[in-house]
């Protein structure tokens, strides 16, 4: 995962634990999960809108008669 080994991940986890404290970690993880979910939802909606734009017919041409 991202080219990190077990020792490196452990050091990063310890630093995060020191910065945020043990009580804040569940809230931090919950908010990161919610943010990731909203991001994926936005990407999915954007791709659906892009597909819908491809299916919209061109407006009729106006003749000069």
Low-confidence stretches: none
Shape: elongated
Beta strand count: 0
Measured as a percent range, the helix fraction is over 70%
The separation of the N and C termini measures: 66 Å
Mean pLDDT: 82
Instruction: State the major sheet.
Output: none
Summarize the helix and strand pattern as letters.
HH
Number of separate helices: 2
Radius of gyration: 24 Å
Class based on secondary structure composition and strand pairing: mainly alpha
Beta fraction: under 5%
Structure in words:
- The protein is mainly α.
- Helix content is 71%, strand content 0%.
- The mean pLDDT is 82.
SSE topology:
Blueprint: H1 6-20, H2 25-55
Report a brief summary of the structure:
The protein is mainly α and 65 residues long.
List keywords for this structure.
65 residues, 2 helices, 71% helix
